[in-house]
Write a structure and sequence with these properties.
This protein has 3 domains: about 5-145, no CATH class; about 155-205, no CATH class; about 210-375, no CATH class. The chain has helices at about 15, 30-40, 45-65, 85-100, 120-125, 140-155, 155-180, 180-200, 205-220, 225-255, 260-295, 300-325, 330-380, and strands spanning about 5-10, 25, 70-75, 105-110, 125-135. It starts with a strand and ends with a helix. Helix 7 packs antiparallel against helix 8 (about 180-200), helix 11 packs antiparallel against helix 12 and helix 12 (about 300-325) packs antiparallel against helix 13. It has a 5-stranded mixed sheet, sandwiched between helices. It has about 375 residues and is an alpha/beta fold.
């Protein structure tokens, strides 16, 4: 029975792809031959040194062992698609090696932190006495740090969250330096960063990517909603610039008794809200037009449409009321708030009523269609 198995791991299967060898490989001579073929194929591959280190450890244990056949050496490899596919292949090869050797413990030899991901897989099957890392061409901390950073950037969740904002900010900075408008662009960057942090906090950071994906699908399918998506983007840009211009004008006058940024934000909402409402309505109207052209039922979209309009009335009335309160026009401010809330409520109820009516009409048509089909079947049977 083999007491100790010296096992060398090649997670990305350089042995198979470069040297053309099939794993698992067992035995000292076979391992040396594999290392030689891999070295001739790619002399800079660090797996060559890892295999020779495994052979060195094997010879050292062999010379100090009194029992014949108590030490064995094996090479296993994964797949170039590093991840689940690679780890599953290594697990299957490990099971094969352990079934043939009946080893009681394992000494793992690898060329870096990436190959050591197999440690939990080995520990689930056999005891690990030692882990030996062979580092070639760079220091161990540098190789490990590179691996950690590489894995971090390959993580889709981290990449989609961190890289797009950083790339956008760096692009804007580069453009600002080239055209000499660094101060204004820095302000725009802060605005974009603030909006992103706000969306992230609300759990809606993917709203822009979802919007772009829907627009792309609409373009490929030739639907009219692509035009409305484009209109929505234009409305957002126009509303943002108009809101910023209004806020800056209000802040420059400095006639407010309340210091800080609250009132400029309220002014921004007052100037930009209807452009944003238009940006929200444009894709919805495009979708409703597509549904109407394709003969689909339009039910819940009516309630959503009127709810968006009602939300715009509330936001506009609220911002207008705050500005009137700040100007000391209390009766007019209260009237503005009252009528804004009342109008929003009526419009919401109107949207719900239309949605119910559309649903009732659709059910009526469905029942009528089914009755007609039933009469037709009866006629055919006669």
């Amino acid at each position: 029975m083999v007491q100790t198995l010296v096992i060398c791991v090649d997670r990305d299967n350089d042995i198979g792809d470069k040297a053309g060898l099939k794993t698992p490989i067992m035995g000292r001579e076979a391992s040396i031959s594999a290392a030689t073929r891999l070295g001739l194929a790619d002399p800079e591959d660090s797996d060559v040194n890892a295999i020779f280190e495994a052979v060195r450890i094997y010879d050292k244990l062999k010379s100090g062992s009194e029992q014949e056949g108590s030490v064995e050496i094996a090479l296993i490899a994964g797949d170039r698609n590093i991840g689940i596919t690679s780890d599953r292949k290594m697990g299957e090869q490990l099971d094969e090696v352990l079934s043939r050797s009946k080893a009681e413990s394992v000494i793992l030899v690898s060329d870096g932190a990436e190959d050591e991901c197999i440690v939990p897989i080995i520990q689930s099957r056999v005891k690990i006495d030692s882990v030996q890392r062979v580092v070639v061409k760079q220091s161990e901390p540098l190789e490990s740090t590179f691996y950690v950073v590489k894995k971090l950037f390959e993580d889709p969740k981290f990449a989609h969250t961190f890289l797009p904002p950083v790339g956008f900010i760096l692009s804007l900075l580069a453009i600002s330096l080239m055209i000499g408008l660094s101060e204004k662009v820095i302000g725009l960057i802060l605005l974009v960063a603030g909006v992103y942090v706000l969306l992230k906090g609300l759990g809606r950071e993917n709203i822009l990517w979802d919007f772009m994906e829907m627009a792309k699908q609409s373009l490929y399918s030739g639907r009219i909603s692509f035009v409305t998506y484009t209109c929505g983007v234009v409305f957002v840009l126009v509303g943002t610039f108009q809101g910023m211009a209004g806020s800056w004008d209000y802040y420059a006058r400095a006639d407010s008794e309340i210091s800080g940024f609250l009132l400029p934000v309220v002014v921004f909402i007052e100037y930009a809200i209807w452009w944003y409402i238009g940006a929200a309505l444009a894709p919805l109207l495009g979708k409703m037009l597509n549904m109407f052209i394709e003969g689909e039922e339009i039910v819940t979209q009516w309630a959503i449409l009127f709810s968006i309009i009602a939300s715009g009335i509330v936001l506009w009335g609220g911002s207008k009321g705050i500005l009137l309160l700040n100007a000391g026009k209390y009766p007019l401010a209260y009237q503005c708030l009252f009528f804004a809330f009342l109008g929003a409520l009526l419009i919401s109820l109107m949207g719900i009523k239309i949605s119910w009516y559309a649903r009732a009409v659709d059910r009526g048509e469905g029942e009528g269609g089914r009755e007609g089909r039933g009469v037709g079947i009866e006629y055919d049977e006669r």
